[in-house]
Amino acid sequence: MLCVLLAAGEGKRMAPLTATRPKVMLPVANRPMIEHLICAVRDAGIDTFIIVVGYREKEIRDYFGNGERWGVSIRYMVQRTQSGTGDALRSAKGLVKGRFLLMNGDMIVTADDIRNVCASPAPAVGVVKSENPEQFGVITETGGKVTGIYEKSTNPPGNLINAGIYLFDDDIFAEVDRLVPSPRGEYELTDALEPAITRNELHAVPLTSWCDIGAPWNLLEANEDALSDMVTDIRGEVEDGVTLKGAVVLAEGSVIRSGTYIEGPCMIGAGCTIGPHVYIRGKTVIGNDCHIGHASELKNSVIFPRTKIPHFTYIGDSVVGSGCNFGAGTKVANLRHDKEHVKVGGVSTGRKKFGAVIGDNVLFGINCSINVGASIGRDVRVGPNTVVSGMIANESVLGRN
């Protein structure tokens, strides 16, 4: 059996983080999210992959190559225009024979759940209960057989959703070839499942470990899950006077300077300098080659590589892109005064605490204030003493520089 991974899309809902990288290459625990998926599929016993690529495909190809480093074999097929999941699967036609696994590349699931799907009769779809079913394709089932799929209904008929993991025989390609564009102009894979639903042949396989990454704030949840069973692994330098509480991972070439206090779980990449006198609170992940300076505090945040957060800065419950530079004294708010769920661009995060989404290569002057729920595009320049709120477009210039 082989696995087809769909990784061609841009992931517009993940903007501004996907302005410079494909969605599946966004980091979870300092590794691309699709790397976690490839490893889980491998551990479930499948070592042959076809990855359907498109948007910024070179980054995926350069990182994974032929898969040898992971003990798998990878081939690539290109979806030139992102015309839906059915069209993406059609890109792999001719390379797939017999039974195969199909998965969206923007989720995380365990090897055990993958094994359970593979043990089902085909065709099968993984399903999971959701607190926000209106955001997904909702599935109804009776006796383990799917009776209907309802795409992003405002009044969903239940809370069981399509998790984006399928087991097919190669006869699915005949159904895909018969697809016509949906009302939104895409070839929908779920439309190709209707004949199997009508014949009462589509199996629903419950999952226990699924994590969807559809919006920037989902990266906080995905990283929290990834750190939940982490154990301490110190490979860098820890100076005298540092306090480590809970599980902390420190990669090679990094140093934690005296007076720093870290509450795990916390993961720090390679080539970082932390401190002196830094306070890092739990569920924080810091990428490679970052600097966190004197008297700064980080809480429950994901910091991408090569970002500099110098002295007297606070960042909480936020996602920060790569190559950013924070002026001294910059603060990110993470709680509304009315304690309601934070919204980003009018979309609820479902979180009472969320700070900001900050794209790559953003430069802040000193003493900036970033309001709760801000989204700051890539290559933005923010002058000293500037208050930043709302949605900021790529390459904007704010305040007096």
From TrEMBL:
Keywords: Acyltransferase, Multifunctional enzyme, Nucleotidyltransferase, Transferase. It catalyses: N-acetyl-alpha-D-glucosamine 1-phosphate + UTP + H(+) = UDP-N-acetyl-alpha-D-glucosamine + diphosphate; alpha-D-glucosamine 1-phosphate + acetyl-CoA = N-acetyl-alpha-D-glucosamine 1-phosphate + CoA + H(+). Residues 4-227 form the Nucleotidyl transferase domain. The lineage of its organism: Archaea, Methanobacteriati, Methanobacteriota, Stenosarchaea group, Methanomicrobia. It comes from Methanogenium marinum. Its EC number is 2.3.1.157, 2.7.7.23. In the C-terminal section; belongs to the transferase hexapeptide repeat family. Residues 262-361 form the Mannose-1-phosphate guanyltransferase C-terminal domain. It is an enzyme of class 2 (transferase). Pathway: Nucleotide-sugar biosynthesis; UDP-N-acetyl-alpha-D-glucosamine biosynthesis; N-acetyl-alpha-D-glucosamine 1-phosphate from alpha-D-glucosamine 6-phosphate (route II): step 2/2; Nucleotide-sugar biosynthesis; UDP-N-acetyl-alpha-D-glucosamine biosynthesis; UDP-N-acetyl-alpha-D-glucosamine from N-acetyl-alpha-D-glucosamine 1-phosphate: step 1/1. InterPro entries: Bifunctiontional_GlmU_arc-type, GlmU-like, GMPPB_C, NTP_transferase_dom, Nucleotide-diphossugar_trans, Trimer_LpxA-like_sf. The keyword NADP does not apply. It holds the Pfam family GMPPB_C. SUPFAM superfamilies: Nucleotide-diphospho-sugar transferases, Trimeric LpxA-like enzymes. This is Bifunctional protein GlmU. GO terms for molecular function: glucosamine-1-phosphate N-acetyltransferase activity; UDP-N-acetylglucosamine diphosphorylase activity.
